[in-house]
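The instructor's notes for this session suggest beginning with a concrete chain rather than abstract definitions. Hand out the sequence below and ask the class to guess, before any prediction is shown, which regions might be ordered.
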Amino acid sequence: MSARTEKYRPRRGETVRDHQHLRNGVYMDTRGGQVYLRPEGGGVEWTVRPEHIGPVAGGHPAESGGAR
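After discussion, reveal the predicted structure:
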C-alpha cells in the first residue's frame, strides 16, 4: 500500500481559498509555478504557490459571460 497525495487542481473560474493570504479568490491560471487568483468581485490579480490553495466549501464557478 502506498501513500498517494493528490494535488488540488481547480477549474478556471472556480472560487478557491488562499490559505497564505487568508482570502478567497477566483482561480485564473497556473504559470511558472504560481497560481493566479483575482478577487471575486473583480480587481487586481495576485499570485500564490499552488500548495497554499484549497477548495472553498460551496465554491462556485464565476459567472460565465465570456471574455470582456
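Then share the key points. Residues 63-68 have pLDDT under 50 and may be disordered. The radius of gyration is 13 Å.
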